[in-house]
Write a structure and sequence with these properties.
By secondary structure, the chain is of the alpha/beta class. The chain has three domains: about 55 residues, lambda repressor-like DNA-binding domains (434 Repressor (Amino-terminal Domain)); about 100 residues, Response regulator (Rossmann fold, 3-Layer(aba) Sandwich), CATH 3.40.50.2300; about 130 residues, 3-Layer(aba) Sandwich (Rossmann fold). It has a six-stranded mixed β-sheet, with helices on both faces. The longest helix is centred in the last third of the chain and has 17 residues.
């Protein structure tokens, strides 16, 4: 494969001159310009990663770290990031964890991997990183943007929402439909945003006089399979329930599937509400009511902030994102009301 040095050698010019032609910046005589262009055509030269770094002083590449490569949630966000980066003439490199065990160590190693591979900046999604981990990055910390988490040391580089409010809104939607016999399928107890949404949910119920200590609750891994198995366990328990709150949409879809298989009608027999409002839930059967988190808008603004930090762009950035509930067919008034 031809290199920029090969182009310079064939054209009979210095490396700097060849670089200026490829970049389209700097003064080059017409004669040398023609020779370099002819050499590029002859060699079929395409700038490599290393050449781009040499020519631009940057790799023109952004790293993205996600905790797990599973389900549809992160796929949708990766598509948003890729679209935004390509629109700016950039590309992305993705690193991801392999399990929820030792998630913090995997995140530290993943971000380090991306930076060591020359990424100009890194976007971190829902990570268990801590302040001391960011401190070890030194000046490179200034080129890290975090989605769905907040750090005091880089507050303006963090983009998230009030998940406690999201939990409260989910509970309020059920209460407004006269549900009091409520079951909960929670995500992992170690995940910060899950803790917040469950806390908000329980506090809203407590404010309505419901004994949350007596609620049926199971912890699962945010997967559809986890939601399915939790719904199966709930039905087998013999507990009375008129509604189920699932801490994300993947688990809610799994629960819907189990209820359908078990002959339990949604929403006639039980209502189901999810969390995230992923695009796919508007097409489930029945269509899923879900707490709407503006993930796409949050992601686009996070990317814009990183482009401003890394490349001196001046893209407008929003840091406040409203949380709401998308009411659909899976939620109905309690039959016991």
């Amino acid at each position: 494969m031809s290199t920029i040095k090969d182009v310079a050698r064939l054209a009979g010019v210095g490396l700097g001159t060849a670089s200026r032609v490829v970049r389209g910046k700097g003064s080059v005589s017409q004669a040398k310009l023609e020779r370099v262009k002819k050499a590029i055509d002859t060699l079929g030269y395409r700038p490599s990663h290393a050449a781009r770094s040499l020519l631009y002083g940057t790799s023109r590449m952004i790293g993205v770290y996600i905790p797990l490569l599973s389900g549809t949630f992160y796929t949708a966000l990766l598509q948003v990031i890729d679209t935004e980066l390509r629109g700016a003439g950039l590309h992305m490199m993705v690193a991801f964890g392999v399990s929820r065990d030792e998630a913090r160590r995997q995140a530290v190693e993943g971000v380090g991997f991306l930076l060591e591979r020359g990424c100009d900046g890194v976007i971190v999604l829902t990570s268990p990183l801590e302040e001391e981990d960011l401190a070890t990055l030194g000046p490179r910390r200034d080129r890290v943007v975090v989605l769905n988490h907040s750090f005091d040391s880089i507050a303006n580089q963090c983009f998230t929402v009030d998940h406690r409010l999201g939990g409260r809104l989910a509970a309020r939607a059920l209460l407004d439909h006269a549900h009091r016999d409520i079951a909960v399928i929670a995500g992992p107890a170690t995940v910060a945003d899950n803790i917040d949404r469950i806390d908000g949910f329980m506090r809203e119920l407590e404010g309505a006089g419901i004994d949350t200590g007596a609620l049926w609750m199971a912890e699962r891994d945010f997967s559809s399979g986890g939601g399915w198995s939790a719904a199966q366990e709930l039905v087998a328990s013999g507990r009375r329930f008129s509604a189920v709150f699932c801490a994300n949409d993947e688990m809610a879809l799994g629960a819907l599937s189990y209820f359908h298989e078990a002959g339990i009608r949604v929403p006639q027999d039980v209502s189901v509400i999810g969390y995230d409002d992923a695009p796919s839930v508007a097409y489930s059967a029945p269509r899923l009511t879900s707490v709407h988190i503006p993930w796409r808008e949050m992601t686009r603004n996070g990317v814009a902030e990183l482009l401003n930090l890394c490349y001196g762009m001046h893209k407008p950035v929003t840091r406040t994102f409203p949380v709401s509930v998308s009411l659909r067919a899976s939620l109905a008034r309690s039959a016991a009301a």
